[in-house]
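We close this part of the discussion by returning to an individual protein. In the encoding step, the backbone of a single protein was reduced to a row of integers, each denoting a local shape. The sequence in question and its structure tokens are set out directly beneath this paragraph.
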Amino acid sequence: MNFRTATRRTLSLLLCTAAATPFAAHAQDMDGNEAAASQDAKEEQRGTLANIGNIVVTGTKTQNPEDVQDVPLAVTAFNADSLEALKVRDVQGLTYAAPNVSLDQIGTSRGTANFSIRGLGINSSIPSIDPTVGVFIDGVYLGNNAGVVFDLFDLESVEILRGPQGVLFGRNVTGGAVLINTGNPTEEFSGKFRAAVDGPLFEDRGGANYTVSGVISGPIVEDTLLFKLGAYHNNDEGYFTNLFDGSNHGQAETTILRGALEARVGDLRVIGKLDYFESEGDGPSAQNRGIFERDSFDFAIDNPGSYANEIWTGSVTAELDIGPGTLTNIFGYRTYDANTDADIDATPNFIFHSSTETSQEQISNELRYAISTDTFDLTFGGFYFDQSISYTEVRDIPPSTPLTFYGGGTQDHEVLGAFASGQVYVTDRLSLIAGIRWSQETKDAGVTYVRPRPMCSVVGGTCPTSGANPFIPTENNGFTDSVRFTNWSPKAGFQYEFDNGQLYAHWTRGFRSGGYNFRITNANAFEQVVAQTGNFFFDEEQVDNFEIGGKFQSVDGAFTLNVATYLTKIEDMQREVNQSSATAGVAQSIFNTADAQIFGVEAEARMRLTDSFVVTANIGIIDDDYEEILFDISGDGVIDDADLELRLPRVPEVTWGMGFIHELFLGDSEILTRVNYQYRDEFAYTDNNFGWVQDISNLEANITWNTPMEGLSFSIYGKNLLDQVQVGGDTQLPFGGPLSNGVNRPFDDRPAAGTFSPLSKGRQVGAEVVFEF
């Protein structure tokens, strides 16, 4: 579909449909003597449904949370009820709920984020690579992509901020930011317990997926000390069938334990949270698309692989009303330890198997002061972040060499930041927006090339970074190096408000961190580049975003429409270039490949057709172009028009969706029905465009019966009901083979001789029971 056709379809959809975030209303238990009260309650519920757009967001970091319709920012926000209606179990579940958003996991290592917003994303599981979409849990930045796309429960809200967010959130949010807020302790004693089972009910593949969770909360000392305790356990028997031996594959078992305390002393409020996460199971369910049809869930691997993760996450948030504003301090701590084993050749033969070991520890602290008055809003503060990462990679490639490949790296990473953001109300309607952030980032790294060598362990500190390779004397073992980046991230714009909406425009600059590649497989070629540039590191990426948007709603709130158009200019685009390698299996090099620009249009709206029926829809259109090529991304040996004509990776041209939510009152009970369809266009996965991820049409539905017994509900739900095939990526391999009938097909949709393409789950149907008090 060309851009003009896509734009015409966009306008047609905007004229014909409307979109919003689902919001679940709950019926209350009333007896026969309270008929009038029951009717009043129903009217109140209908009022709640009618105002589902009234969701507050915290991403602006102002003194008081703001309504999503009031902030001059492209944001899709979900509160606890809307997340319940969506049946969200992990961040990836929100991929099909917002335009120009892909919150996938890469699949190479379970739980590793491969997020992309507005066409800015990554395609690598290398732990030294920084994201384009930052993830924050209870205000704490997660400094590593690993361990992000895991199970979630007891959520208070999720906010997806689209576009660079550098002023308030720092580096590595050039695509946007995802803010996840877990539930706080409650003033009244309460609890919520959930049990669910789902799986491939109508398909001859895999087994069931069981989940149980519970949360209790309440006061220890009334109005002074509150608590919350939660536990979650998931046992997934494996969704897929491994055709190599007929076994279930994709098995996983996950346990989460969570505790929180909140203390209130005068104007001081302190909330401490601690989360323990443990998960283990099979390695990636990877399909080789040089053997199997890419529109199937068929795969056969001789090594089922494995993963094991342990994560501790803690935060302490203190808020104090002092003077005219609020002083907030957020301290965060996280440790992540993981081991993986995977069949990278994705065939029934032992050709390329790999295992990894990763350890990460981080601390962070943000101190800010926010003031809101009738004439201005001002937030300013400072930020500190420090993390250490260690990584070992092992590659067994018997056809290439009897030797085993070892390599990886260690890195100490420190960030200092200071920021200020404000909005001045020039008149009752017009306000000016401005902000700036100073950042200083230091990385000290030691890298060992992934090459044949004696056994070593980076985590154990024994992998050499100097000297000659004992098996290949013409190569060095690796290097140590340090780099510091310092820059300013400004923002400037305005907001014009009127009776039923607003217009806004702004320019924002953001940066994605430069750094080091832990996965260097060709030592001599890499050192030739070093000799030419004088740098062991790749440079940072600069993003400038120019955006105009509007938010409109009818007088009665029955209709809302939020639209935005933007131009994003990317300088020194950072790419993880995947290339098949006969000796190393896969070579992943990191370069500043090009300057590019992305033009996009997106919209979300909603329409309440009746008191109990709301129609939803969203749409996003992207047009991408390279402006200058800095690296031969086509792989033909020269930089020419062939490079300029390539599509940018991870940029679907079109995303759009429609849905509805309906309430049906049955006396003292209620049935809530939700249906949502979302389409995402195909996109290039590799820079040379050999690897493509096909388009997907995702249909989800659920029906919930809120029973006459207060707090008790039953649901049936379906995800990916059209049973669409989706993968984490299309990494090119030199290994593949003929189809089952012995006929080799041209590689029109089969990059190189084959691929490593980790499968995501197809159709899932389930049932759930919830009891809360």
